[in-house]
Amino acid sequence: MLALDDDPLSLPTPPARPAVRMPWPLRLRECVLGYLPLLLMALLALATWWLVKSTPNAPEPGSEAAVRHVPDYTMQGFKTQRFTPQGALQVQIEGTQMRHYPDNDTFEVDEVRIRSLGEDGTVMRATARRALSNGKGTQVQLMGNAVVVREALDGQPPLEIRSELLTFFTETKRVVTDQPVQVLQGSNDMRAAGVDYDHRSGLAQLTGPMRARLDPPGRRR
C-alpha cells in the first residue's frame, strides 16, 4: 500500500518567484491611469465653474440696453409743419437734410429755414447753416450764421437778430443767446454779448458789454 504523500500522480510545487520591482516610469503611468477618471471629473467641474463665472449676467426684467446717439432715419428735402387746433399753420421747418435721433427725440437739420406765425399776425423767420430741434419743433437751436427776423408789424420796421448761436422758441416767439449778437431795427444797430428777446412783451434785454448806434426818434434815412 502506498502512502498518500507518495502519490506518483501529484506534481511537485514550483518554487515561488521573487517579486519583480517595476521601473518608476511604469509605476507612475499605472498611478496616473488609476486616477485618470477622477482627474477628468475635476477638470470638468473646474471648466463648468469658469464658464459660469465668465458668462455675463442676464439683464434684469424691464431693463433696456442703452440707446446710442445715432440717427435712425434721414430725409432729403425735409419739411415739417405744425398746425393749431383750429387748423391754422403755426410753424414750418424745412432744410436740405434732416437726421432724427431716437434716444432724445431730436432732429438735426442742415440749411434750416423756419417760418413761425403768431395769433396776432406776427411772422418770424429764421435761417442757419444747421439746427437742432426738439421733437415738436417748439425749441430750435440755430447754429452757424443764425438769423431770426420778426417781420414788420403795426407800422414797426422789421427786427433782425444775428449771431452764431440762437435759441428760437417758436411758440412763445422768444429768441435767446449768450453769444455775441447784433440786433438791427430800421437804422438802429445794437451789438452786445447776449440777448433775450420776448416778442410778447416787446422787450429785448441786451447783456454784457454793449455798443449801439441809435437814430433820434422821428428821424428817417
From TrEMBL:
Region (Disordered): 201-221
Sorted UniProt keywords: Cell inner membrane, Cell membrane, Membrane, Transmembrane, Transmembrane helix
Transmembrane segments: 31-52
UniProt xrefs under InterPro entries: LipoPS_assembly_LptC-rel (IPR010664), LPS_export_LptC (IPR052363), LptC (IPR026265)
Superkingdom: Bacteria
Biased composition (Basic and acidic residues): 212-221
Keyword Cell membrane: yes
Pfam families noted in UniProt: LptC (PF06835)
NCBIfam families in alphabetical order: LptC_YrbK
Protein's UniProt name: LPS export ABC transporter periplasmic protein LptC
Organism whose genome encodes this protein: Azohydromonas lata
Gene field: lptC
